[in-house]
Amino acid sequence: MPSTDTDLKNQRRLRPALASRFPDCDPARLPGGFDRVGDIAVVSLVPELEPFEREIGAIILDLHKTVRVVAKRDGQYSGEFRTLPLRVIAGEERLTTVHRENGVTLHLDLAQVYFSVRSAHERARIAALVQPGERVAVLCSGVGPFPLIIGRHSGVREVIGIEMNPVAHEYALRNLQANRALRTVRFLEGDAGQVLPSQGRLFDRILVVLPCGGEVLLPAALDALRPGGVLHFYDMQAKGCHSATVAKVEAACRERGCRIRPLQVAVCGHCGPTVHRICLDAVIEATA
């Protein structure tokens, strides 16, 4: 469900409510909000608050009447499919939900797929850049938010999403059914480095969404991008340090006989206070 003015107001009420209930705790250590995915609130708690986690979950449910589940982050994104360890601390015992974002409906299971609600603005940004008639490919497309939002908000000719996680792919197919009007969107399962070349066509725009290790997909992406096409390459870098990301793409371009013309680097998230998720937008040109 999208955030509403009431949601934001109640999020601002969370820390004062917790400070009142736990007066002996340092207010700065209390959660000041949470990520909302559908009707699930995902909250981070410092170790000293873990004995009170169920009570904190109950307070969140009381403040947010449309939240049905409160889950605590139980680790960091990890594993082949970068899933986030979560544990339900209040409400219904489930991690499946229906999330609505940028005009599309997304079914997902937070226990089995990667999904970042914080990338909503970035997905809208990319959709606004897509020009009418373009062919677009999204590598590591997850449950389908990028392709579906591009299909909803642009005049794209075709957008494909390629995803290796079989559970995420099944959800992407389900989400395509849930957004029936989006007839320009297709989802394919498998290793994007192998599936993309099998399409037998060039694309005007390619997104490499995998934020860690996505450089392994650059050769396939560059080969499938038409001369003068646009690459959106996501990466994790230290705050303010973008040159390493540009260097990765430059190196891949040299190997493929093309060159990069950077357009901009957009900061679109973070992993801790000093590491940013960034997107390099660049035109890839043929060498003379």
Describe this structure in words.
The protein folds into 2 domains: 5-94, GMP Synthetase, Chain A, domain 3, CATH 3.30.300; 114-286, Vaccinia Virus protein VP39 (Rossmann fold). A 7-stranded mixed sheet has the order 9-8-7-10-11-13-12, sandwiched between helices. The model is unreliable at 1-6 (pLDDT under 50). α7 (218-224) packs across α8 (243-256). It has 8 helices and 13 strands. It is of the alpha/beta class.
Chain-wise SSE layout:
Blueprint: H1 5-21, E1 35-37, E2 40-43, H2 53-63, E3 69-73, E4 86-91, E5 96-101, E6 104-109, H3 120-129, E7 135-139, H4 145-153, E8 158-163, H5 166-178, E9 185-189, H6 192-195, E10 203-208, H7 218-224, E11 225-238, H8 243-256, E12 258-270, E13 275-286
Helix pairs in contact: 1-2, 3-4, 7-8
Entry keywords:
288 residues; alpha/beta; GMP Synthetase, Chain A, domain 3; Rossmann fold; 2 domains; 4-stranded mixed beta sheet; disordered N terminus
Please provide a brief summary of the model.
This protein has helices at residues 5-21, 53-63, 120-129, 145-153, 166-178, 192-195, 218-224, 243-256; strands at 35-37, 40-43, 69-73, 86-91, 96-101, 104-109, 135-139, 158-163, 185-189, 203-208, 225-238, 258-270, 275-286.
